[in-house]
Amino acid sequence: MSDLFGKDGPAPPLAERLRPQTIADVVGQEHLTGPNGAIGRMLAAGKLSSMILWGPPGTGKTTTLVAAMAARLTGPEALHPNQVLGLTFGRRAAIDWRDQVTAAVGGGVVPLVSTFHSFCYALVRQFQSDEAYVSATRLLSGPEQQVRSRQLFADAIADQRLNWPEDLMPAVGTRGLAEEIRGVMSRTRSHMMDPEDLVDLGNSTGRQTWSSIGVFMNEYLDVLDAEGVLDYSELIHRAVLLSHRPDVQEYLHKTFSAIYVDEYQDTDPGQVALLKAMVNVDSALVVVGDVDQAIYGFRGADEAGIRNFEQEFESVFASPVVNVVLSTCRRFGAEIRSAASAVIGDRVPAGFNPRDIQIHRNPVCTSDQPGEISIQTFDSPGAEAAHIADAIARAHATADLNWSDFAVIVRSATVSIPTIYRAFVAAGIPVEVAADEIPLHQDPAVSPLVTSLRVIDNPSYANVEVVADLLSGPLGNVDPVDLRRFGSYLRAADSSPERAPRPAMVLIANALLDPKLLLDVPPGRHDSVVKAITKLGTILQSAREQMRNGASPHEVLWMLWQGTAWPAKLQDQALGFGSASTRAHRDLDAICSLFDLANRFVARGRGKDLTNFLDEIEAQEIPAEALAENDVRN
Question: How many angstroms separate the CA atoms of 584 and 561, rounded?
């Protein structure tokens, strides 16, 4: 089927196309996967010992985990799927991992693969008191935690409840300070410390800032507890405390016989403590990681986890832990390997065997293509984006490449993606942005709804740019050419001897805010535009009236959503096939996330003020996981 991204549909990602399907497909790791290798002997015996396996990207870490889990789920001594647990750091990774294991065993078995936070939430819910179970404890998303902690901190400063250093007062209210405070609180909990411990540490070391954050952290946790919510670090903290209860520890030991952890370098001390409580001498624990990468430092990830794994768990298992370094890469060529090695440098992280680090950083690349790297500098982000768009358009036209063969990776999604997106649209390049790379209110599907809510809350927000976007977007669905023609008609009708006619988009904006102004437009060529403006304008007026009568943001949003033809259109597209169906699913997922956020706002007792709700979601500056996160085109 022909679609936007290719002649026969989008191709799978390159890493997926190159990934071995079985251990036998792995090339270059015979010393590990062969009959006499450590992994080969374990698979032949049907039992994997506890081990740490590490290496750079493309060396088969994920493949090994998949094969290891599949081996424990098949054969005469197969474990029940509920006895085999996989833990990782993202729902997308968990879904992919689960699907690969299911395919590896031939279907019919769905393994238990979860994120650390999802597992901890289920554990806390399972063993909490009956009284607490009546009202479900909710987990704050990353963006919600960012906004909530910033608001509470600003309130504490304004009310003079916090003795904050005078030299740091100018930073109050900035995103940078909010992130630093959130990071300190997260690391405090990940090290199993209480707010009072942070206060004492600050006093003993003469760091007033730490003491002040400890005082604020105590208030912050009290507020979250009163609202019935937890943040990520508090969730892990409670799960670790719970795991040391004798009855809970007995349950964990009896339930999980084999545990596998991906991206182990991203664990924090709390997660390591949880794993130590979950295993005993009869368990198998296999972890994989890469000592040269970590993406969850902002959540307290500590390289000490992977560095000290052998020492931490030898005492638990009463036997040495197998340490394996993968040394053959199939994903990229020698040029990319050399460039990466140059960036990483020769520094050997403390606590690692220098020979292992040498093997890890110099894998044998089996790819026939060495790869190519080009470094270019530009005067501005706009010039950079325009050059990238031009390079992709030229390659697409001359190198027989599909649009799906290109990818653009940026350092900061919130800073770079809008500029890149505009440049691609201007160049006629179809572009899709992963929903988990941008804040929710910037998602292309959510933005029209948020903009409409702003107009409902404050009609003066409807300037000419906003009105043009609303009418030509999915809520109005007006053809831009027809809209310009109608604007020319209104401008001609507005002319008079006394004054010059007003701008066309000003007249259209006035009509959207007051559809009665269009009653005098005669039927004819502008009927479709008049109908669309009247319908959307009437919806906005009705929703504004509902808001004034005390409706919650969730109810106002529902009225706006149900009043248009967009839901039915998205439903039809989602039930179809091809790229249109994929985009419709992604859009519906983002919109459901917005409704969920509105529902949470009301459930937390934050009032029915639409202005506060909009301010809160637009203050979210970091991405959030979607409700049904998946690949951008999958």
Answer: 15
Cα–Cα distance measured from residue 224 to residue 231, given in angstroms and rounded to the nearest whole number: 8
DSSP string, 102-142: HHHTTSS---EEEEHHHHHHHHHHHHS-HHHHHS--EEPPH
Q: Can you give the pLDDT at residue 628?
A: 43
**298 has a pLDDT exceeding 60:** no
Residues contacting 207, CB < 8 A, separation 6+:
201
- The Cβ of residue 270 has, within 10 Å, a number of other Cβ atoms equal to 25
- d(Cα 175, Cα 181) in Å, to the nearest integer? 10
Separation of alpha carbons 202 and 191, rounded Å: 15
The whole-number average pLDDT for the span 543-567 is: 90
The CB-side HSE value for 351 (13 A sphere, CA atoms) comes to: 11
CB 431 within 8 Å of CB 422 = no
Helices (H) and strands (E) in the chain, counts: 29, 10
Helix (H) or strand (E) holding 306: helix 304-307
Distance of CA 202 to the CA centre of its chain: 33
Q: Is the CB of residue 528 less than 8 Å from the CB of residue 485? A: no
Kindly state the average pLDDT of the residues 246-262. 93
Residue identified by tokens 């010039």 is 383
pLDDT at 29 over 60: no
Q: How far is residue 381's CA from residue 399's CA, in Å, rounded to a whole number?
A: 26
The whole-model pTM stands at 0.70
- pLDDT of 550 reads 87
Residue 393 has pLDDT above 70, yes or no: yes
pLDDT band per the 50, 70, 90 thresholds, residue 7? very low
Give the single-character DSSP code of 363: P
Residues 6+ apart with CB under 8 A from 580: 3, 573
Structure-model confidence comparison of residues 237 and 441, the more confident one? 237
Q: How far apart are CA 60 and CA 290, in angstroms?
A: 12
Q: Is residue 540 scored above 70 in pLDDT?
A: yes
* Integer Cα distance of 328 and 55 in angstroms: 9
**How far, in Å, CA of 543 to CA of 455, rounded?**
10
Are 22 and 101 spatial neighbours (Cβ–Cβ below 8 Å)?
A: no
Token pair recorded at residue 479: 């053809």
pLDDT at 1 (0 to 100): 37
